[in-house]
Amino acid sequence: MSCVEFTINGKLCSVSGSVPIETTLFAFLRYTLGLPGTKAMCYQGVCGVCIVNVTAKRPTTGTIETFSVNSCLVLVLSCHGWDITTIEAVGNRLDGYSEEQTRIAAFNGTQCGFCTPGWVMQLHSLKDKNLSMLELENSFGSNTCRCTGFRPILDTVKSFASNPTPELCKAVKDIEDLSVCMKDKAKICRQKCSSVSSDSDWSIVSDVKNANEMIVIRYDDKIFYKVFEIDQIFDIFRNYSSEHYMLIDGNTGKAAIKNFEYPPILIDISNVVALKQHSIDQNLILGANISLEDCLILFRNVAVDREEFRYLDVFAKHLDLVAHIPVREIGSVAGNVMLKHMMRSYQSDVFLLFESVGTIVNIRSVSGTQSSLTMQEFLEFDMNGKLIVNFELPPLGANHIIRSYKIMPRNQNALAIVNAVFNIKLNSGTNKIEKATIVYGNISGHFIHAIQTEKYLQGKNIYCNETLQNAINILNREVAPDDDPSKPSPKVRRKLAVGLFYKFILSITPANLTNSKYHSGGQNLTRPVSRGEQHFQTDSSLFPLNQPVDKLEAIIQASGEAQFVNDIPTMPNEVFAAFVLSTVHNGDVDVIDASDALEKNGVIALFTAKDIPGKNSFIYPGYQLQTEDEEILADKNIKFYGQPIAIIVADTQDLAVRAAKWVKVTYKNVKSIPPVLTIDQATKDSTRVVTGDVLTSKGKGEDVTKVIKGTYEIGGQYHYYMETLSCLVVPVDKGLEVHDSSQWIDLTQSAISRSLCLPESKVLVMVRRLGGGFGGKISRNVQVACASALVAHKLDLPCRFILPFETNITIAGGRLPTQCIYEVGVNDEGKIQYLKAVINEDCGCSQNENILSYSLGGFGICYNRDFYDVKTFNVRTDTPSNTFARAPGTMEGISSMENIMEHIAYELHKDPTDVRLVNMTDTDLPILIEKLKTMADYKNREEDINVFNKNNRWIKRGITLNIMLFPIEYYGNYSALVSIYRGDGTVTITSGGIEMGQGLNTKAAQVCAYTLGIPLEKVSVISNYSFVCNNEVFTGSSIASESVCYAIIKACETIKGRLKPLNDELKNASWLELIQEAAKREIDLSAKYMMTDMEPDLKGYSAYAVVALEVEMDVLTGSFQILRQDILEDVGLSANPKIDVGQVEGAFIQGCSYFTKEKFIYDKTTGKLLNNDALHYEVFLAKDIAIDTRTYFRYNSKNPKGVLGSKSVGEMGICTAHSIIYALRKCIVDSRKDSGYDISKWINVDIPLTTESILTALDVNPSEFILS
């Protein structure tokens, strides 16, 4: 055969050499079949937006199963025999929507909606498998969401469980009742997606003719083989050497390989049944290519059935921590250990598990020779022309005790910081160790066994302090981690290695031989099923205002029908573009040689700075907060490693991205100096420092009894919007139509016009929605838009420019790192008598978007600032220009001041809340504090935690209460155009506010319907256009929704004013009668209003929140979990409480992620960003959020200064997330007290509080690792 065959949504597809060999299933779905519901972001199988379902025969079990896969990893040529279901077939506007789609919409599980189809598809693959709530919650490490905070998504997921709570059952019934009420407006699709083509007799279920015939697809310089028998593999081996071929099963391993390129020969072995079987003689014979998920299930079952393989239950639990279900479904055991063979430093969990029990790997060579090797021997074995056939796992007696551990940056879907397996053979009569096996991962490329410790333990009784301490001392000496800047420090990895050994010993030591305080140290943190509750008021007399309705776009987001930039159908002759990035952090471009790239078929053109006809800048100095030009493409004076210097154009996105790496660049005038990457480095050079706003004191108190000094420092944060920066530019008539992922249409239009010397009137910008923004698409997207416009202008062809994650995180900047150096004098009560502070912010390589005034505005705003002296400075570093990020400046200012309050309280041994209250001038926050203390049962929980910590040495808990006052100021101008149609009286709105998940469109429709007095169903919100919102400000600062709603009210009032005489004349006319008569009389039924920040009835106001947060920490590993969060926020009279709850919870989790996980790691010599992919830049996932989430809105709190009584909510939640710092600090302090440290003095803890930061702050001495 010379083609592969499969079905997609029931229709037969046949793919041959006309499709490039590297084409992924995702690219085929999107660009060949025109199915845009499936998204892509990371291209590593991490984010989950690309998930689709597959129904196929599993070679291991022989059964037909439905499972999920990452379409961005799977080659389309590997899909032979599959029946693939995409989001389009799960439910849609024509056939009706599925239960998964309607529920995730109704549970408010969507915000920007870009990730939603991936969640739905993962759920769709699991919902009929009779899983419990706990099992379902554990099954979504595959999916990322930056908006929602996960809680409503998990509620959706759990509603499909075999054991849902009564509350979930009631919610589901309400959803179903509503769907019946709405009839065809939200039809529920009850159909089962067919696995058989409706128009073909070909089916994955039936036997395919010539099923074992090798498939060969030839290209000019490449060949794809699909084999079905082992002998077919060796037939190919005889013709090619190892450097020319690659064996493919799931193709998931490429995600772990930097700068991956396919070799000329690809051999798909995924259907070689002989490699996916298992049997048991004396050993468990495991086929090499059994999938990790099938392996997990097999291990679980065999452990139950066979006493001698009881240890496999430990292995199964460990495999559950490897990647996630879609990867494990097709990723193979052999593939995982081959990654270790290729990259010795790779922390393969499978290798570690197998090595711990003496697994034998059987390898066959092309000559037929069989080699049986240990796992360590395998690492040194030349695999050229050889194939792993199977693994032999031995039976072990009951006297073997095995435990495995994997310490990760987050709870799921991450590579190990350190992983370990301990296997001891114990003489139960003497309690002496007959044999010890201790293996570690991620120590170094050559370190596997703790050989010296293993030898020492032999013949020893481990259940005594002397033996344990001797073993620990030996282990501490022999574990020598390598120094890799992309990994936690050697010191911390050694701490983990030793701590895990002690944890293992505690876990196996009889309770009567250990101090009861140490028992919990032998356990891992366990997470039960999460729960949540939300409390808010509604007033039905105001509906649809204040009504908790679903987002307008929710159901089409859940069905993949909501259109984002890259979902716009492809056009004839369309081209794709990618940036070529600099590989130096200073100097000039000398020669750009693209000859190798341009020789490749499909690579079209290269553009550099010299090709830009106008101003080489994507910034327009003079616009709000824009002060200096930034180059679209650098030529002279490169400012950071990774700065775009050229654009490569190709006929596919994948080819453009790959071709960019083939371009050769030489540089000149490069200075041999290290890059300046930190605030401390930059402040030493006065030319890099710019003075900002100041706050001058009005005096100084006279009761100074203590002076406190400190430094608070927080780093950058990548926005992690799920839709990377994207733009499609189409030449139309004499101008350009620009489809941009932008929060600021005006800047995009002006910058393109300026760079191409085109009149602005010839540049039409359109934005339908964004897949997340968080401030990162206010200006940074404009670089991509200008580059896309340049290509379209030069080639007179449509140009699609979608940044890969690696480029996006490298060039797009992020939250400004901030440093606050302070000295504060206080009295005995903690009241501030004077405060001197310097706030330094790292703006990156440009001074654009200076947010120092916001930082100063948020700094201590709820306190008496009369005695404050605060200076602010921006510093330049050799990093990409930083930019707005959720609550820019304000969050940094608030968290800086709250750190000072915590420091004061600590030094004075006082409750931080008391210190806050004695300094507070605001009158609302004290009320909210007392209210939340009562609702959260704060005092009793605090007492319980004190008791718990006294009784537990190695598990600690902490609870804290923190506050926020967020100053709201109206800023800029926003328009709204309201149009009413005479045919049916329906209404459309287009405005200057961009929908990016915050619910702006839904609130706009609610306010419009409320103002006009019509049903909400009559109002639609359409795309944003530059000719409607011309000359307007960006969507940001949390006030866009309110501002747009204000403009809508004014526009509606204009129309109502025009209609009033007619309405009075007609008296009791219906809405439709009124509109139709008005149209007959040619009354203008459209009105536009532009709101400005000078509206007399709009005044600034304050938003408030109080948070109680409880955490639990494993002192031995630095791991933690959030046990409970209680948030009380004043949102005024919420226009839509359901949406506002989502904003509060989502922002809070984004902040918790920032303060504990997220950091940029740069090479200190080159300035290169090292963690520039989704595998290494970790954010919170579903199992990282609080186990118990409770959100309350303040009752009876109509805002007299806002729009219709509401308050902004979009940014506030992140400004209370600093609470997690202080909850974790309490755990650290309690442990340090047990360690004997002087805890009277404040210690600095590095932020984010990663495993490294926590273990460093705990600073437990190995001598403390005893049994009693």
UniProtKB/TrEMBL annotation:
Sites where the protein binds Mo-molybdopterin: Q743, F774, R886
Domain of life: Eukaryota
GO CC, any one term: peroxisome
Location in the cell: Peroxisome
Residue ranges of the TM segments: none
Active site: E1211
PROSITE patterns linked: 2FE2S_FER_1, 2FE2S_FER_2, FAD_PCMH
GO molecular function: 2 iron, 2 sulfur cluster binding; FAD binding; iron ion binding; oxidoreductase activity
Assigned keywords, A-Z: 2Fe-2S, FAD, Flavoprotein, Iron, Iron-sulfur, Metal-binding, Molybdenum, Oxidoreductase, Peroxisome
Family matches, as SUPFAM superfamilies: 2Fe-2S ferredoxin-like, CO dehydrogenase flavoprotein C-terminal domain-like, CO dehydrogenase ISP C-domain like, CO dehydrogenase molybdoprotein N-domain-like, FAD-binding/transporter-associated domain-like, Molybdenum cofactor-binding domain
Positions with a binding annotation for [2Fe-2S] cluster 1: C42, C47, C50, C72
Cofactor needs: [2Fe-2S] cluster; FAD; Mo-molybdopterin
Positions that bind [2Fe-2S] cluster 2: C112, C115, C145, C147
CC cofactor note: Binds 2 [2Fe-2S] clusters.
SMART domains assigned to the protein according to its UniProt record, in alphabetical order: Ald_Xan_dh_C (SM01008), CO_deh_flav_C (SM01092)
Binding site for FAD: S332, V333, A334, G335, N336, K406
Pfam families found in the cross-reference section: Ald_Xan_dh_C, CO_deh_flav_C, FAD_binding_5, Fer2_2, MoCoBD_1, MoCoBD_2
Complex and partners: Homodimer.
PANTHER family reported for this sequence: ALDEHYDE OXIDASE 1-RELATED, XANTHINE DEHYDROGENASE
Family of this protein: Belongs to the xanthine dehydrogenase family.
Protein name: Aldehyde oxidase 2
Species in which this protein is naturally found: Danaus plexippus plexippus
